[in-house]
Amino acid sequence: MFNTKSKLTEPVTISPSFQLPIILIILSFMLLFLNIGYWPTIVFAAFSFFLLLQSFTLRIKITNEDFIVLQLGKEIRTFPFKNWISWKFFFPIIPGIFYFREKSSPHLLPILFNPEQLKNELIKKVESLEIKNP
């Protein structure tokens, strides 16, 4: 199911990426030029600033067995690789969304982390579960 060839390695913490929130902040202020009112701009900008805050506070740590979400250094959620069914990056260049499915539920996460580093670590741990493009 997951890559058993990988040796026991130290946990890796994925570097943050501020690219997505900054792009969304810029786009939110561009809404002002569309004459659709202030509320869409305010809502979109608030969401964008929320993502920026999350970029500063959230971290992903990958161990040999788990995908761990940390907030301000405290573990808030663990996703064991043994429960994973599949994973995929949508729009990784923009950056976009990271999708993974566990036995119990699917998860969509905005890519607030270094997408290359995240993908490389996932390939080391669960490459066989990646959903390939047709």
From TrEMBL:
Keywords: Membrane, Transmembrane, Transmembrane helix. The chain crosses the membrane at residues 20-53. This is Glycerol dehydrogenase. It comes from the Bacteria.
